[in-house]
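Before the break, one more example. Copy the sequence into your notebook; we will annotate it together after we see the structure.
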Amino acid sequence: MTERRRPRPIPADHFGARLSEWRTRRRESQLDLAISANISQRHLSFVESGRTLPSRDMVVRLCEALDIPLRARNELLVAAGYAALYPERSLDISEMEGVREALDRIITHHEPYPAFVVDRAWRVIMSNASAARLVSACLNEATLQSLSPDGRLNFMRMMFEPTQMRPRIRNWQLVGPRLFTRLRNEARGDPQSPSAALLKELGPRADCSPLPEEDHPELPTVPLELLVDGSTLRLFNTITTFGTPQDVGLQELRIEMSFPMDQESRTFLTETLARRK
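Here is what the structure looks like once it is written out:
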């Protein structure tokens, strides 16, 4: 009687294994993904098991069907034996001048309300004057330096800062879990995201937990009640991203813009905060 050979497990860095992880992360069955990518389920099974190598075009189609971030798409292309497809350009180069101007126009026109542009690591790469004044009203210079080890203020570290910022957030038990959940969701959506490291770093001293996995009632807006110069600002945030970008870094940028929720907060931003130097 001959012994049947067991199939060798494919390496974790193999394209098929990585694709299977992304499919599981997106909660898609093989059949669902096969239909979305317009291939047979049998062929997809062969790709994931390592029995078939996909073409470059198929890698792109599968990534698009799973809505995988561009950075991870490049990694999957390399794992499948192809060159990376999507560039990652610095905002400082001349080719990105139009993008810089667009970002500057957006946050400048948002005055006198605060606006930040943050990257995938939650570093503040641009901000308007109102945001700078608000931050300096909440944190002293030494604390700002400690939160900016590479010269860029980290937005999440700022919000979780335990001695100066967090005591100013009057409704931390409402805001904290939602910030924590944003980190958790980004870490789950992309395990290579810096949010995973921030989650481990900030979690033990966050004095809050992420929202539960099960369904929970969401507010239409989550106010941030911030004590500044003896006044309580009530703000809500919107998040803007670039639509259909073809650049890795550009896809990962987020524009965080704050708006006042009442007349007192509007007056504080337009008059009191605007007079600060």
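The chain has 13 helices and five strands. The CA atoms of residues 40 and 218 lie 39 Å apart. Try to locate both features in your own notes.
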